Amino acid sequence: MSIMDFEAIIGYNFKNKELLKTALTHSSYANENKLPHDNERLEFLGDSVLGFVTAEYLFAEFKSRPEGELTKLRAAVVCEKSLFKFAEKISLGEHIFMGRGEEHSGGRNRPSIVSDAFEAVIAAMYLDGGIDAVRPYILGFIKDAVKREASFKDNKSLLQEEIQKNKGNTIVYEEIGESGPDHEKVFSFVVKLNGEIIGKGEGKSKKEAEQAAAGNALMSIKK
User: Where do you find CATH 3.30.160.20 in the chain?
Assistant: First the structure.
């Protein structure tokens, strides 16, 4: 795979190709080939650019959400797990310049390496074309993730608001089981109101299962 192949995938043509090459250069490759630069400094910058554009979008999109909720939402959207999923969409792991030892140990599929490279590519695009070039690129990835995370938060927040209408009420989420292989686990949760089960839900993560249980409880309460 060439630099031009990757440019075609991401839909951006770099004026300075060296920026992109550096963004795709893992430290293991730089050390092995005695190169002066790897992507670690760009990753540092990309993390901030990604955080800014995400915060800017959340601030405009959720005008009534308090700062604490926006902070948690941003953290969920730009976490390593999310960035790795974004990177998979553009086959980023296949394009990283990587040392032989790192590659043989599965580095191309390692979330920490691939998500760092994703941030480095963001930084390279920012330095090459400015914020107006990188903003739509970032938004193309985060919008769906924001909708997913925001809807999860809505269920729990709405249930909490409903429960708090009567003072003294308490709700607790409890895991009641899990099934499936390690790479496809399904978690089961219940939500209890004053010790009584009012909702059940399942999900591919504990957070998703809690949110499903909250949604189930909301439907029961509003019947």
Answer: 166-221
